[in-house]
Specification:
The complex is a heterodimer. By secondary structure, chain A is mainly beta. Chain A is 0% helix and 55% strand. Chain A contains no helices and 10 strands. Chain B is built from no helices and 11 strands. Helices cover 0% and strands 52% of the residues of chain B. By secondary structure, chain B is mainly beta. In chain B, the strands form 2 sheets. In chain B, strands 2, 4, 5, 6, 9, 10 and 11 form a 7-stranded mixed β-sheet that branches. Classes of the chains: A mainly beta, B mainly beta. The interface between A and B is medium-sized, with 25 and 23 residues.
Chain lengths: 108, 118
């Protein structure tokens, strides 16, 4: 199975700062099949990015995804208060579908 | 508007059976896979299984194969996740999600908390 390793585990930033989250795969992932989800406490995950770089419906353009092969990145250009949450990457190209362990973005 | 509404919180004893549900609306239920995802307390997301309501085809994660059963009834627009004999380690939040045509999870249910304790 493909193991996804996210780093850092926790990112402490202030509103207005740029957040860069990493997702590294144990083997190559087709970039068409890499997604990012946001989860806030007590809520279900929400799709942010699919196909490694395509924003889901209603997602602000401060969220962007990039990468290929084994290295993928989620960037939040300027953090807003509602962006402090846990972020998960997921590959859905090769069964079993797998998620990274998550990166928590917290207020500094 | 696409919505997935899950059944309510469950508290069970080890060895008991359980079936939780996920009702879809706002789209053609029979033509999209439904996935189930586990989140143990304080932990990350794990894919459990998929079911295709149109023909009841299923796919299981190797980690959950034989431990749970997924099914769907397209006549009532509902997917199910069931256990025949619960263990304490099944305690978790379980989410259902719709799979897009490209297999990412585009809409999620609100989650069903399952607690198994003697």
């Amino acid at each position: 199975e493909i193991v996804l390793t996210q780093s850092p585990g926790t990112l402490s930033l202030s509103p207005g700062e740029r957040a860069t989250l990493s997702c590294r795969a144990s083997q190559s992932v087709d970039s068409s099949y890499l997604a990012w989800y946001q989860q806030k406490p007590g809520q279900a995950p929400r799709l942010l990015i699919y196909g490694s770089s395509r924003r889901a419906t209603g997602i602000p353009d401060r969220f962007s995804g990039s990468g290929s092969g084994t290295d993928f990145t989620l960037t939040i250009s300027r953090l807003e208060s509602e962006d402090f949450a846990v972020y998960y990457c997921q590959q859905y190209g090769i069964s079993p579908w797998t998620f990274g362990q998550g990166t928590k973005v917290e207020i500094k | 508007e696409v919505q997935l509404v899950q059944s309510g919180e469950e508290v069970k004893k080890p060895g008991e059976s359980l079936k939780i549900s996920c009702k879809g609306s706002g789209y053609r239920f029979s033509t999209y896979w439904i996935g189930w995802v586990r989140q143990m307390p304080g932990k990350g997301l794990e894919w459990v299984a998929f079911v295709y309501p149109g023909d009841s085809d299923t796919r299981y994660s190797p980690s959950f194969q034989g431990q749970v059963t997924v099914s769907a009834d397209m006549s009532v627009g509902t997917a199910y996740l069931q256990w025949s004999s619960l263990k304490a380690s099944d305690t978790a939040m379980y989410y259902c999600a719709r799979l897009s045509g490209d297999a990412y999870m585009d809409y999620w249910g609100q989650g069903t908390l399952v607690t198994v304790s003697s």
